[in-house]
Amino acid sequence: METGSGSEGDLEELLERLLPRDDRYGHRHGSVGHGGDHLLPVLVSSSLTLAVEGGEVVLGTWQSVVVVDPNRENDVRRLRLSFLEG
Question: For the chain, what percentages of helix, strand and coil (3-state, to nearest 5) are there?
C-alpha cells in the first residue's frame, strides 16, 4: 500500500464503511463490532510474498508493507517471516 499523505486514514475509513463496528454480525463474542474482524480476511490477505533483491525488499517508491488488524481486544500481535532463497 502507498502510505503517507492521508492514505492510512483513508484505509481506516474504508474499512469502517465495509465492516462497521456495530452489532450487526452473527459472530457476537467480544466487543461490539468484533464480528467484522473475522470478516477482514475476505478483503485483506493474511499472507504476502515480496521480492528481495540485494538484501532489500523490492517496493515502489511510495509503497510500504502495512499490517491491518482492527481488533481492539488484542493489541499485541506476532508476525511470522519466512525467507526462501531461489
Answer: 25, 5, 65
Q: What does pTM read for this prediction?
A: 0.69
Whether 75 shows a pLDDT value over 80: the answer reads: no
As for how many domains the chain has, the answer is 1
Residue span of the structural domain in which 5 resides? 1-86
Who's near 73: CB < 8 A, 6+ residues apart? 30, 31, 34
> For the chain, how big is the Rg over CA atoms in Å?
16
| Nearest-angstrom CA–CA distance, 53 and 2 | 20
Residues 6 or more apart whose CB falls under 8 angstroms from that of 44 comprise 68
